[in-house]
Write a structure and sequence with these properties.
Elements: H1 3-18, H2 31-34, H3 46-63, H4 69-79, H5 91-106
Length: about 120
């Protein structure tokens, strides 16, 4: 983990420790929405994809009410988190953000890379 990611992680950890109670993403009842494991074999079927997408939508709604949403998103973006919903951002959202940052830095079009 790079220094920027370590700093973002420390800020997020500190903010989480100061909350009166853990955020909903840490609750066992909701964890499945936030932390989707990568599929081991093959392509998921349509039903599995709908469930994953609905869980992502639900997780983002929960993030909207979280006091550490911005810090969580900042950490995920800085650390290049590849999985899960962090601070209201999905892996797809974060890839778009990375592409936009690259485009700004290089002057190239903002198209996400297929492989980071």
């Amino acid at each position: 983990m790079g220094k920027k990611a370590q700093k973002a992680y420390l800020e997020l950890s500190t903010a989480l420790a100061e909350l009166p109670e853990p955020p909903q993403c840490a609750d066992e009842r909701y964890k499945h929405m936030f932390f989707v494991e990568p599929m081991d074999v093959g392509t998921p079927d349509a039903l599995a994809m709908r469930i994953i997408r609905q869980n992502e939508i639900d997780a983002k709604l929960i993030c909207d009410f979280c006091k550490v949403k911005a810090l969580c998103a900042e950490y995920a973006i800085t650390a290049h988190e590849a999985f899960g919903v962090w601070g209201g951002t999905s892996p797809t959202d974060r890839k778009a953000i990375y592409a936009s940052v690259r485009a700004t830095a290089t002057g190239l079009p903002a198209t996400p890379l297929l492989f980071d």
